[in-house]
Amino acid sequence: MSSVEPSEKKSFEDIFEIYLLYLDETRGNIPFLIFPDESIKNNKEKMRPIMIHSVWWTDMEDQAVMDHIDLEYSNRTYFARKFLTLSKRNQHRIGTDFDNPETITIILALPSHIYIFGADLLNKLTINIIKNFEGKLYKVIESEIAKEEIIKSDKIIETIKIGEEVKQKLKNLIVNTCKDFFSSVIKEDSKNSIKLQKAISYFSLKGMDSKYYIFSDKRNSFSKIKVFEPKIGDNNNEFEIIVQNNSQKEYNNISIKIAYLKDFLETELMNYTIDKWFPEEELLFISPIIPNVNEYHLFIEHNKNQCFSRKIDLNALNVIKN
Question: Is the pTM of this model over 0.90?
């Protein structure tokens, strides 16, 4: 399982947040993992939707009926559920032993524009965490508690080290689960689903390469495309873009589309079908410029599967529009 690279972390930051909390009977529910930004742990404003979430007023029996609890807050939807996991941590409860299960709460935050994915993704994350970290999460909890000790003995230092190793593996699992999930749901039937079109448009609006999500298992399968810097025409009402098949392979059934976003839906400006795209061949496309629209998106499909995307920001070009 690959580690979380800084570039990936930055990409995912605008898509989701994951919170894992454990139950401390004296202090309440305490976060032991926040992804991608652990630093918000002590930020009361950013943690407010977690603290006021209605999941805290439910118990495990309620989930048999409701499955998960949602909260809408500041253009994000927070999906939450509780689950039990094995533990060998001394929880200092009267009448309990070291094998008492941990009560874990998982909260997934998604932008409201792609809330449609929340319930399924939360379920997938929960299943994978339980499957891969059953009986291990308590080590992360012990590590977080040990960090609060002022004087750290060798045993405490070792506890922290073990917990951090488990925590890193847990973060890797989260990234890979979300990456695989977004790949699978978008590939299902994005052309016939308005909700999925909105999701793809949202990724593009954030400047993210949609092939990263759609083709995460084949990231190098269509990497030999070169896009030259777009140029704005002399009359300032159109721009030109050249794409090149920068490989030694001939591609059939290529679709090239230029679109812009409105209300998180794609509006096509042009859509060309190329029967054969020969090695090293350059293709020139001319697209109209829509008033007050500065961002456009280039999409390339191969055999009806999207394999390449690029954001075109007219403000970043050398020629200034009137």
Answer: no
